[in-house]
Write the structure tokens for this entry.
Amino acid sequence: MKNTKDMTHGNSAKIILSFFLPMLMTNLLQQIYNFADTAIVGKGLGDNALAAVGNMSSLTFLIIGFSMGMANGFAVIISQNYGAKDIGRLKKSFAASIKLAAVITAVLTAVSLLFLRKIMVLMQTSEVIIEDSLRYGYIIFGGLAATMAYNMSACVLRALGDSKTPFNAIIVSSIVNIILDCVCIFGLHTGVEGAAAATIAATFFSAGICFSRIRKIEELKLNHEDMHTEPQMYLLLLKNGLPMALMNSITAVGCIVVQYFVNGLGVAYTSAYNAGSRYMNMFMLPGVTAGYTISAFTGQNFGAGRYDRIKEGMSVCIKIALIAYAALGSVMVFLPRALASVMLNGEDTISLAVRFLPISGVMLFAVDLLFVFRNCVQGMGFPLVPMISGILEMVLRISVIILLIGSFGFRATAFAEVSAWTGALIMNMSAYLYLIRRYTNKNIKFNLTANNFS
């Protein structure tokens, strides 16, 4: 299959780098157009509009993160079937994933639109920004089908070793997004709803490109029989996808609580926290990408029973994460004011962001490594450990922000992030070391047909 890649043979480092680099560019472009969206909103509409968009970020992570977790979980099963060369089960798992994704999208869209205003009120959203937040949110969640379509199709392609098509899709959608942002905000003066509409339109473009590629892959061409999937396959997909989805959503709950306390401090703090979070998300990209890379690599090799290759892949991805930390963490530590000034206007707001960025930058290695270890455990088919680590993240975020915000003020938000990363990293690293020792020492061959993911 052109563009797809069997990761169970060949030089592990070369395979990982050839997969990692296009995906890094994909994720980087996604962050660039998210960054551009933020900068255009901040510079074009002001800090209050930026606060309104930023106020939605934790809630967006709650809903969209759930759908992404499901897609990633489904992709693990697809990857393992591909690695095992079981094309029949590959097709059935793909068909079942499409059906489940459609149902999940419909439910999430209805729930998010129905309860959006109530959640905004519970988050202590300021009256100054609540209407803008709602206008932005209704469009983003109303277009959830586009987001799920892209995430699902991109995850399937990556499970089969194709990281180039999602990259090409993001190139197109990034250009579309930035152009539409400028047209809507500076040309049509639409406000924050224009930025939201531009994001959804761009996502439709990226989903369409990925779908067109999937239709050309022979192993994914479905017939009538493939669409009639046995109930056990749905259960297997849900058993792997649901814990990953819950992990994202549970983590998001902790972020929402932090956002609650930030909103209680005032609109300037909300703007500063949004700007700092955007940079943090951008600079952890290499770690995130290394995590997605090891997930696909692990899934295929776990399905093929090639556990030593998983260790080789982990060594490469850990090095990638640490090199990225050394480079990008330093920027957050030594250039916080320059970074904050790109997105923010007011001196007070910029000064607040300067308090957040260096603390996060010093400990950026923890979240980079977290993505690598957590995704490897997921790729081995053990999603409950990452889910439990998500609960730990939530508990640590909430506990630290409650305990420290009175003493440290806005800096407590950074301490909350750092503590959550560190706790989750320790748990996932321990799980990886146990599992890889168990499978390599005993040479256990995992049974893909058994519904025994734990």
About this structure: The chain has one domain: 12-442.
